[in-house]
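Re: S-adenosylmethionine structure - here you go.
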Amino acid sequence: METITDIAAARPARANTARAQAALHQIFARSRTVRRLTVGTLARIELAILGGHKQKPVMQVIRRVRAERESLLSGNEAFMIHSLARTQRAVGGTMAEVGVFQGCSAKLISLGGRPERLHLFDTFEGLPQPDQAERKSMGQGHYAASLEAVQAYLSDQPNLVFHKGLFTGVDTGCEDERFSLVHLDVDLKEGTLACLEFFYPRMLPGGIIVSHDYSYLAGVREAFDEYLAGRPERVVELPTSQAMLIKR
Ligand SMILES: C[S@@+](CC[C@H](N)C(=O)[O-])C[C@H]1O[C@@H](n2cnc3c(N)ncnc32)[C@H](O)[C@@H]1O
């Protein structure tokens, strides 16, 4: 059993680990080459492993889309999003994504879910200003991709509705929609919390909110913790960085 002395001794080590993680994330967020060598390589390996036992046509779609544009999704995460979209097709309704970047995850949702409408929210100018704590690992403008480039990439997909600007949960234009699947990938606490507050009450029974980075970025996890404090719902943590919330 850990004693108080053990815990106190572990604290500086944990602080060093957090500092190292933040420094690594800064390098990662700034360098496309580092992302290609790390996430890109991991995605190819994971998709190759999945290819050994999952349905071939499904894997062909995911492998093709994952290779078409840069994405922060690992192979397992890309598979999970596409799989959830296919499942949630039966629930009906609308789907949404906040945090589109170059459009890879949006295309996986569109192809898997074929929703009546897929609302895509992004500043299309990269991350907004992170708060003080998050500034150690991320910066304003990281992951910028233009609206025009993303629209051109997704021009073969039907029923897309693009929303350019900061998602704050106010004047979204989707107040009357009911959602079967929402994918969150905004990296920051404030944005994640605004999304949960807006979308969770608008989810259909059985609807799913899935978020990237739940176990990787402290702000994302804190947003879920804050939103769920005092509520009976709990997140389902996945073996990837993702977690999901199922509407009862
Ligand atoms: C990590 S990227 C998304 C990656 C993408 N889902 C993929 O699979 O490739 C994060 C995106 O979130 C967007 N973003 C972050 N906070 C936002 C907010 N509050 N409103 C709108 N977009 C936001 C950024 O512009 C950026 O494109």
